[in-house]
């Protein structure tokens, strides 16, 4: 197992958010983490990344416990995180954003990223602050990849993007999967998960309400309407 989250309880101060959540990401698989607004999806990724520490439960990555470690250590072990708010350097160019993130031993370098995300190629000298939301999203994912992660945590990569950019993001995730990367993909809707996820979890108010194959979720329209607002 690449990532195993077991019974985590996460709080923000007095607010009790994740109530005994467990999930797994097998090596080389794409796992979707679904749920409506405020369900606790981002908090789950932040808990894995060490940005908020669960009060109880364990998180293991490959052979090692990572709960309690600071984020930079978790990152150094091979976990990369692309947050909802896409933290790229606004004063640096596309090329500079990539080159400062690049690490030796990564299967991906900056030049390959401009091939994986074709819309970025002609913008290589443009500063981060002059990119559109979709271009920033592609750059944020590319920056995570050039660090050579074993597990990628993606928080709503398609949010607010034009359809053509969503397609580019879907193609890139497909390519990462082909290369054997494990991905935990947070989404609010089912379009992208149905294209490429192997397994899906649904959380609601910090509790797991579905765990199964993406195929099974496809057939469970009751769950889709109850927890994801599909067809509502
Ligand atoms: N820093 C914080 N301090 C206090 N409460 C927070 C904090 N961040 C999130 N919350 C609360 O925790 C709950 C879960 O938030 P979270 O961001 O994990 O949800 P989400 O599933 O990612 O939602 P969305 O789809 O809107 O991104 C929400 O009720 C939210 O208001
Ligand atoms: Mg969120």
Can you describe this structure?
- It is a single chain.
- The chain is globular.
- It has one domain (3-228): P-loop containing nucleotide triphosphate hydrolases (Rossmann fold, 3-Layer(aba) Sandwich), CATH 3.40.50.300.
- It contains 9 helices and 10 strands.
- Strands 6-7-8-3-9-10 form a 6-stranded mixed sheet, with helices on both faces. Strands 2-1-4-5 form a 4-stranded antiparallel sheet, with helices on one face.
- The protein is an alpha/beta fold.
- The protein binds adenosine-5'-triphosphate and magnesium ion (MG).
- Residues 12, 15, 17, 35, 37-43, 188 line the site of adenosine-5'-triphosphate.
Topology:
Blueprint: E1 3-12, E2 15-25, E3 30-34, H1 41-49, E4 56-61, E5 64-65, H2 71-76, E6 79-82, H3 94-101, H4 110-116, H5 133-145, E7 151-155, H6 163-178, E8 182-187, H7 191-196, E9 199-204, E10 207-213, H8 214-219, H9 221-228
Parallel strand pairs: 3-8, 3-9, 6-7, 7-8
Antiparallel strand pairs: 1-2, 1-4, 4-5, 9-10
Helix pairs in contact: 3-5
Adenosine-5'-triphosphate binds next to strand 2 and helix 1.
